Amino acid sequence: MPDTAVTTDKPREYEGEKSPGSRTTSRRKMRLGPTLKLLTLQVLLLIVALAMWQAAVEIGWIDPFFVSEPTAVIERLREVLVDKELYVDVAFTMQNVLVGFALSAVTGVASACIMYKFPLLQKVVDPYILALYSTPRIAIAPLFIIWFGIGPASKIALVFSLCYFIMLLNTYAGLTNVDQRLISQVKMMGASDWFIFRRVSLPASVPWLLSGTRVGLGFALIGAVVGELIISEHGLGLRISRASGLFDTTGVFTYLIIVAALGVILDQAVRLLEKSLSSWGSATAK
């Protein structure tokens, strides 16, 4: 009788098969690859621009009295970043930005929904909205100071006037650009107008709303700084105004860099919100 060998060895995995952990790691690497490449290119572009700026100053093509130089700006930036008063001014500016934008977002979205619900009202107020939207609110910023004083209220009012129409028009455009065939199909199933608005129209307008948010926050930061440039007790705009009055171009560029950094932070926050709300909109619309 032939010998039979019994083995307890476990079957080996196929060479091409990967564990779930390795597949997850591979997906992460695939996602991080393009991001790191893009970040590297962005940093290189910044380095090249600063090098060209510094070289132009060293060669004598431009006068540092008018445009300063990167080494001086970086040194001043190091000095102001350890100044506690700077963060008081940053907080003041960001308070004006966020409060003004929040008020404009709430009222702008609500106004768009009302205009969407009542088309006749939209036709009546449309020319007045466009007229007010075309008015240069920066030019009437001194009026806000007369009406609301030199405190935060005048800056918030200026931010509101800049962002309200952006949120209103973007939200209304999103609501009116929903696929009407989809709405008709949902109506044929017996859905109410409120159900259609909540589960179809509103989720479909999320990309438009987020686009308005990104643009609006940029204008909100501009409005807050401009309001502080005119007259203010605190804020980054006040610091820029003081540096400009002293012909301190290094200080002006330093505070402009801080304002730009705040703008980038706000934009990245909206991008994160966009990922979250876009997935919500897709799930809700199903």
From TrEMBL:
Membrane topology: Multi-pass membrane protein
Signal sequence segment: none
Superkingdom of origin organism: Bacteria
Sections of the chain in a coiled coil: none
GO cellular component terms attached to this protein's record: plasma membrane
Record-annotated membrane-spanning stretches: 36-56, 97-116, 128-150, 156-175, 208-232, 252-270
Region (Disordered): 1-28
Basic and acidic residues biased stretches: 9-20
InterPro entries per the UniProt record, alphabetical: MetI-like, MetI-like_sf
Main localization (coarse): membrane
Record keyword Zinc present: no
Subcellular location: Cell membrane
Keywords: Cell membrane, Membrane, Transmembrane, Transmembrane helix, Transport
Domain ABC transmembrane type-1: from-to ranges: 90-274
GO biological process entries: transmembrane transport
Record has Cell membrane as a keyword: yes
Family that this chain belongs to: Belongs to the binding-protein-dependent transport system permease family.
Protein name, entry field: NitT/TauT family transport system permease protein
Native source organism of the sequence: Rhodococcus jostii
